[in-house]
Amino acid sequence: MPAECTHKSNTPSHTNGHAKAAPALAAPPPLPNPSTGSANPSASLHALWGYLHPALDHIVRAPTSNPSKAPAIDVGYHMGVHTAVYNYFTAQSDVGPGPAGLAAFPTRFSVQGEKGQASGADLYEMLDRYYADVAREILLGAPADDSMLIHYLVPCFNRYSAGAQSVSRLLNYVNRHYVKRAIDEDRGWLRLTDILDAVARTIREDDTREKVQKRLRERRTEELKKWGYKDGDPPARVAQIESYAEAASTPDRVVPLAQLAYRQFRIEVVDPLLSAPKLKVCKGGKKKRPPSASSEKPPLPRGRLARAAKELLESKGGDEEERWRLAGELGIALRTVGIKVDHPLRKKLDKFIPPEQR
Prior knowledge:
Blueprint (H helix, E strand, L loop, with lengths): L6 H4 L2 E3 L2 E3 L24 H17 L13 H21 L25 H20 L5 H25 L1 H13 L7 H9 L8 H16 L10 H13 L9 H18 L5 E2 L5 E2 L15 H11 L5 H17 L7 H6 L9
Antiparallel strand pairs: 1-2, 3-4
């Protein structure tokens, strides 16, 4: 699990009724460039992944004293990664079909009908699986007690997010070479076929190309409103909102590496915690509902995360400011991973997000 999510360093321990601060973790030193001997890390996907994997684990999983800052790797290692990825992509482009051993790593991101593997799709798929594994570990490490869930989840997400952003910068060549091209080829979060049917109903035979393109842009704007877009938003705000929509996309869509990580966090962590437990089916085929709550107590939300948020916000005593901070940071996390603005829990938590971060 990434850095034990560093939640232990932020949670006070108690001895004889008195709070005792847990010792802070020291920041790990930059990870040095591993020796590859005469091996060429760009010779195959297996070799490249073997070279990258220690850097990914250090950046995303290593314990750190600051969950908002990912541990660094040595400058030489950083340069080595960039060079190895560049050489690997170049070799793929020159050869056409995927490198030897690629059959062991099937991908869902290549284009049907292309000659061979789309350059970079195999590495992109491996990164997608890596983030899924890390996110799954976070969910498996979640405490069973709902009252501790958000205290665990918020630093976990902050640590995961810091790692994802750092990896995105480290592997920016993947974004520029593979992701951008895939989006240009209509394989991004919103494809032409997604909006064409709705737009086609409003197109007339005498419409100009400009009018059709305008309607397509309008349809895209309607989609972005699901994640908070408002008319007149500046370009930087629009780009941020689009990143939320990318994180909310289905796994077959190609999105930038940071949003790839957030999408897996949503799929593997947030969605299971938001979902309500399935009702048991009785022998007669009818679904057995849980016993109704008494008239004195309103029924609890069914999803674990909603119950935890309710308990956090309604608990008495303790540090109220800390509770509000956790609620706001959880709201930011839900927004970042693509939960829509009209989701009940988002609407409840968004009010606790600081105004400058809304």
